[in-house]
Amino acid sequence: LIGRLMLEVPEEMGLIAVAVRQTQGKGRGGNVWLSPVGCALCTLHLTIPLHSNLGQRIPFIQHLVSLAVVESVRTIPGYEDIELRLKWPNDIYYSDLMKLGGVLVNSTLLETTFHILIGFGFNVSNSNPTICINDLITRFNKDEGTTLEPLRADCLIARTVTVLEKLIEVFQEKGPNGVLPRYYKYWVHSGKQVRLRHEDGPAAWIVGIDDCGYLQVHQEGGGVESVHPDGNSFDMLRNLIVPK
Q1: One domain, residues 62 and 179
Q2: Distance CA 128, CA 17 (A)
Q3: Of 185, 218, 235, at which residue does a domain stop?
Q4: Is the pTM above the cut of 0.70?
Q5: Helix/strand/coil percentages in the chain, nearest 5
Q6: Which of 77, 134, 222, 229 has the fewest CB atoms within 10 Å, i.e. is most exposed?
Q7: What are the residue boundaries of the BPL/LPL catalytic domain, all occurrences included (predicted)?
Q8: Distance between CA 136 and CA 124 in Å, rounded?
Q9: Could you tell me which residue, 88 or 67, shows the higher pLDDT?
């Protein structure tokens, strides 16, 4: 729907499609994305000038969207300690234990403008198939003696889009360094050791994200190298970075 409309409306007009339920949700690499009722699900259309800070580093879009999802919850007064976190390159996690959301970005360059279609989905009030944000709030209330209210999917989609708009403005003005401190605040990888390619492969430590949004690892006895998100899978459970 958005793909058909995005070139027919004025550039200054925003487009978003919100679904209560998806029957053909897709993830990265052709994976199926399960979308029961209770998820926040939408596709958002953005235009980014090619010759801008973000246009020259377009892979950063997925990181900005993931960060916007986390901040949509963790910037609400009282909800700052809800354990929503970021897994590179495009996943939303409960701590470093369980996935509860993801981001998928498609871009098309027409002349000097990127047309970006951002699909994101995250579990708000559905406990299955993994865990949801309201489960985390219930646990937090029980552990901390608080009375935080459950959140609604429509509210969090609106907050996510608003936060994303501000993140893009900061990135366009200051580049990666304008947003990376906020990203690192929530990501799950700081100081983590991984193995390259296989379980007996060389050890490496995750050090951050480079200027193009790719993961940087420091190999034991070697230098820092960047890992491309489309050519590698990052297995959280086994701490492996392996070529697909």
Answers
A1: yes
A2: 23
A3: 185
A4: yes
A5: 30, 30, 40
A6: 77
A7: 1-172
A8: 10
A9: 67
The boundaries of the domain holding residue 200 are 192-243
pLDDT of residue 2: 83
> Are β-strands 98-110 and 113-123 bridged in parallel, bridged antiparallel, or unpaired?
antiparallel
On the CB side of 131, how many CA atoms lie within 13 Å of its CA?
16
Residue type, 25: G
Same-domain pairing of 83 and 113: yes
**Residue where the block lists tokens 């801008």:** 52
51, burial (CB in 10 Å: exposed 0-12, middle 13-18, buried 19+): exposed
H-assigned helices in the chain: 2-5, 60-74, 133-144, 153-174, 180-186
Phi, psi of 63 (to 5 degrees): -70, -40
Asked whether residue 112 falls in the same domain as residue 227, the answer is no
- In angstroms, the first-to-last Cα distance of the chain is 31
Q: Domain with 155 in it: what CATH number?
A: 3.30.930.10
How far is Cα 76 from Cα 89, in angstroms, rounded to an integer? 24
CA distances from 165 to 72, 74, 114, 211, 225 (A): 12, 17, 16, 20, 31
